Amino acid sequence: MQEKTTAVIKWCAFITNFIIGVIGAVILAASLRILFDNEYSHLLFHGSGNYLAGHVLVVTGISLMIVCLIGCTGIVKGSSCLLGLGFVSLIIFVVVEVTFGVVAYNELAEFHEKVHLGIFWAIQRHYGNDIANTTVIDLIQQGWKCCGLNSYASWSNSLYSKRHTPKGTWPTNKFIVPKSCCIDPQSDLCEVTHLNGIRNFDTPVEHVFFMEGCGPKVIDAINYYVGCLFGFGVVVVSLAMAAMILCGILICNFIKMGHFIRLKSLKSPESTNLIADEQPLGSPKESPIPLPSAPAYALSSRTSLLVSERPISSLV
Questions:
Q1: Are 64 and 24 in contact (CB under 8 A)?
Q2: Distance of CA 240 to the CA centre of its chain
Q3: Rounded to an integer, what distance in angstroms lies between the CA atom of residue 182 and that of residue 177?
């Protein structure tokens, strides 16, 4: 019964550790794609500080894969040392993840402000000058169908608009909006409006440009992603705690089984006979010396006595 229970626990622990490893691989692949694929890089913003979140996800994925490898190897080989290392690794992972979750939740408001400022400065100063920020803003405006920080009017004071406005017409109400604000960037109407600019805020451009600002949309999207991330983190931490408990039970079972086997081998009759029969190497095996029986011993003693009483001459 004990062996069946241990086998069930081993399978549960192996499956749990394997699922943790698969989750780690998925996190690693998704975070690397977000960090380096331009199609998804609009989820992160240079200079806003949230690139740290992407690198934290990379470290989390690698850590989960290492913990999975240690745990599965220890379970398959039945090694208490590897299981103990996996147990300690899971404890460290759970503590770090819970701490990071609490810190991230407390810093969420500041994170929103950094993202808001990152978009603001990217629009006002860096668009058209810095390739990374230009690409991110274009992807944001096309991806979330928005324009500017709060509306298309955010571009009125940008360096991009000043740079593309004809000389001698600044300051005026005329400003330039990038083509990524257009509903259809390839249309002729978008091209004409982009070249001519917007003369005042009353110009009817709702059929050309997106009317909503990108700031509120990005913040809402971040809140959605953070909520999904926290829910996913709770699942991962729960699996890690389950794997930790199962590894702990396996370690105790392995230790008990090893102690039982040693104790049984010491108490077995075969081991007792082996201990009794053990002789030092090189020492001759002693054979018992037979003692003479009582009558024979008495007869030999009497004969020797009679011989001793006779004179020596008679013995010659």
A1: yes
A2: 10
A3: 9
Please, are residues 219 and 116 in contact by the beta-carbon 8 Å criterion? yes
Beta bridge partner(s), residue 175: 198
299 to 289, 291, 308, 311, 315: CA distances (angstroms): 20, 14, 14, 21, 20
3-state SS class at 209: strand
> Which amino acid does the sequence have at 25?
A
Q: Which helix (H) or strand (E) holds 102?
A: helix 80-106
Which residue in this structure is represented by tokens 């992603």? 225
Per-residue pLDDT tens digits for 210-262: 888 998 888 888 888 888 888 888 998 999 899 889 888 888 877 776 644 55
Per-residue HEC secondary structure of 247-264 comes to: HHHHHHHHHHHHHHHHHH
Alpha-carbon torsion, ordered 29, 34, 35, 39, to 10 deg: 130
Say which DSSP state 303 is in: H
Q: What is the C-alpha separation between 134 and 119, in angstroms, rounded?
A: 10
| Distance, CA of 226 to chain centre | 18
A 10 A CB-CB count for 184 gives 10
The closest alpha carbon to 120, from 109, 35, 112, 191, belongs to: 112
DSSP result, 177-197: --GGGBSSTTSHHHHHHHHH-
Termini Cα distance of the chain: 89
Integer angstrom CA distances of residue 292 from 94, 142, 192: 82, 116, 134
pTM of the full structure: 0.62
Give me the pLDDT at residue 8, please.
85
CA distances from 49 to 59, 107, 111, 130, 171 (A): 17, 12, 8, 17, 34
CA distances from 244 to 9, 145, 268 (A): 12, 45, 36
Residues 6+ apart with CB under 8 A from 280: none
Residue with tokens 């080989």: 77
CA triple 131-135-138, angle to 5 deg = 140
